Amino acid sequence: MDIEGFPRRFARTRRFSLGVPREFTVSPDGDRVLFLRSESGVVPRVGLWMYAGGDERILAGPTADGSRGTPESRRIGTEPIPVRSAGVVSYATDRRVRVVAYSLDGSLWTVRTDGGPPRRIRTVGPVRDPRPSPDGTLIAYVAEGTLRVVGTDGTGDRPLAVPETADITYGLPDYTAVASIGRSRGYWWSPDSGALLVARVDTSVVERRCLSDPSDPARPPRSFPYPAAGTANALTSLHLVTVVGGRTPVQLPRQARASDAPANSWGLAFEYVVSADWQGAGPVISLQTRDQRTMWVLRADPVTGTVERLSQHTEEGWVEFPPGAPLHTASGVLVLPQVRGDERTIRMGEVLAPAGLQVRAVLGSVGERVLFTASEEPTEVHVWAYEPGHGFERLTHTPGVHTATAGGDTLVLDSRTPDGQTVTVLRGGRQVGRIAVLAEQPPATPRPVHLSLGERQLRSRLHLPSWYEPGMDKLPVLLSPYAGPGMQVVTKAHGWYTAVCQWYAEHGFAVLATDGRGTPGRGVRWQQAILGDRLTPVLDDQIDGLHAAAERCEAIDLGRVGIRGWSFSGYLAAGAVLHRPDVFHAAVAGAPPTDRRLYDTYWEERFLGHPRLQPLDYERSSLIPLAENLTRPLMLVHGLADDNVAPAHTLRFSAKLLAAGRPHSVLLLPGVGHLVTGEGVADTLLRLELDFLKSSLGE
After folding, report:
1. Residue 516: CATH number of its domain
2. Cα 96 to the chain's mean position, in Å?
3. Which of 4, 332, 595, 661 has its Cβ near the most Cβ atoms within 10 Å?
4. H or E element: which one contains 651?
5. Sheet of 294-300: strands edge to edge?
């Protein structure tokens, strides 16, 4: 086992993500499967591939068209930062999956799946998010905030919606939509290819932040809109734009009625466009209020722009739709989320998913057959299907995390299990092939023991060194969770995080990861247990899991306990040594959001409300006021180009620690954003963390 070589391979493979196929599209006849994949597990050049008739071939990318790279979008307000990523970052197709559009180096390219080389189409300005019309005759794209359209043959390039000021864009999502809601699109074609539903985003009311590069003092700071908790959001409106130049505003409601909202509502204005699509007679739009306790699903008249309400959803905590919902089947049956007791489920017309399932995502439909993912056990996610007359069927059975993409009678299953990742192609329910996963395997083979710990049956993973035997000396403990909303790390799936945990274990640690309250997959009450306090319940679960694990594993030394994490878990790590130095003896906190008022509106107000109305919740959940409590070794790490968790979080916290006379370590990473990748940075950081934890815990 090449433990010493692990950090370099971890960095070189970008967390073992290179060579993994992704973004599958299956043609309606089931004959063709499109996907993106880099050339190998160590070469980052990404190509567009097609699987057909049992064979794979590349359609477009660096190998197919000679391009060296494309700017990959990063979320900075309405104009993301270009980040160099060789190859095809994303693509879109027409209805039949015959015409494919993508961008390279800001240029618009097309390729046909029925033959012919990639073709460059001349456009006005750098291209963002090109998408063919359903009939394949036109391609819409965004250039400098203007939504434009051009013929697939390269003729007739013209603007459809032009920004009135520099603060306005058409056809792009705002920061909150991308960063927190998960909506990456800003326009949608009509089924007849004659019109588009277009988002207009106005950021003139949003506070602006500046990011500079201290390593290059000659470069001026870059300013961008960022809606911090309690401040104004971008103003998003929707418009129906025809390809011949017509334009009609969608008459969205301004706010929910108090009588239709929960009693504890504080923000009734509809400030968030959560989702939109145009699958049938008219666009279907999901709107959410500022306090996130009310969601309306609307259908817009494609001619007049008037709307009708299809459904209304309210919750005392917050309304949460699974990705992919709402959805229409071919006959128009509406698939909607629903809360049943403590379960997040879905309703297809009048039919509810089986009891005992926590629905994770709606994957799509073929005809009247609806595909979705759900969990019976929180550490596993399986693919399910529902079809009238046939009922419900679970399509995956191997323990792990599964998802799928369908077209015709073809199903592409993407499965991550304890043995690794596989992509299987089924036709008519029978396996007909596999799409190759070219990812490198980590040299530290994960050896987790899955546990359910304590009164709350906390799902946990325990990693011990491969060389450890009963009776040996006790090991220092390293907690390596995420434990935040929106993400699990304790699943029956192999991932980069399990490999990192095993690497630490091979260096002499007992490594424990626990998903506590606030994490997804265990019901509404479990998720909403962190309302009003983002730290205490989460930290209590980490401590309970640690002590319960120590009762079951003699290797754990409770006298030497460290904790590490990034982003939310970086915040948790710093909070652990501040709140409970009796339990935690050292911490590494990467990109920790130490002041909850500095984070964005949607994600922070969901849990803590408006800072003007609930100031004590923000005070309770922030770390800066506790700086003088630090008595344990603490290493703070932050990328100076981080546009998600601003470097100000760490710098202000460090200044407060310094003023209180509390020694600590600070490692600042010039030019690095929220995601740390690349050789010379990700690998070195792993080694520095290891050295700090070893020296701090006396290992």
Report:
1. 3.40.50.1820
2. 28
3. 595
4. helix 648-659
5. 270-277, 284-289, 294-300, 307-314
| Helix, strand, coil percent content, the chain, rounded in steps of 5 | 15, 35, 45
* Residue type (1 letter), 88: V
How far is 37 from 40, CA to CA, in rounded Å? 8
Contact 508, 475 (CB under 8 A): yes
Cβ-contact 577, 632 below 8 angstroms = yes
34, 111 contact by CB (below 8 A): no
Instruction: Provide the domain count of the chain.
Output: 1
Paired tokens of 64: 């197919």
Give the whole-angstrom CA distance, residue 199 versus residue 187: 6
Task: Look at residue 566 and tell me if it is in a domain.
Answer: yes
- Asked if residue 132 lies in contact with residue 96, where contact means CB atoms within 8 angstroms, the answer is no
Give the other-Cβ count within 10 Å of 693's Cβ: 25
**Helix/strand/coil for 502:** helix
| Beta-bridge partners for 475 | 556
Contact call for residues 33 and 427 (beta carbons, < 8 A): no
Average pLDDT, the chain: 94
Alpha carbons 336 and 347: distance in angstroms, whole number: 5
Residues 6 or more apart whose CB falls under 8 angstroms from that of 155 comprise: none
Tens digits of residue pLDDT in 72-82: 333 333 333 33
435 beta partners: 423
Residue 307 counted as domain residue: no
- CA 498 vs CA 15, 444, 494, 513, 680: distances in Å: 11, 9, 6, 9, 22
201 occurs within a structural domain: no
Left (φ > 0), alpha (ψ -120 to 50) or beta: where does 125 sit?
Answer: left
- Looking at residue 154, the DSSP 8-state letter turns out to be S
Residue 67 lies in a domain: no
Q: Which of 441, 388, 393, 386 is nearest to 419 (CA)?
A: 441
pTM: 0.94
Tell me: pLDDT of 96 over 50. Answer: yes
Nearest to 602 by CA among 232, 277, 252: 232
Give the range of the structural domain holding residue 689, as residue numbers without chain letter.
449-697
Kindly provide the b/e burial profile for residues 102-134, where b requires at least 16 CB atoms within 10 angstroms of the residue's own CB. bbbeebbbbbbbeeeebeebebeebbbbbbbbb
CA dihedral 429, 490, 544, 633 (to 10 degrees): -170
Task: State the average pLDDT over residues 207-220.
Answer: 91
Backbone angles phi, psi at 655, to 5 degrees: -60, -40
Mean pLDDT, rounded, for 153-168: 97
Q: In the structure, what pLDDT confidence band is assigned to residue 699 with cuts at 50, 70 and 90?
A: low
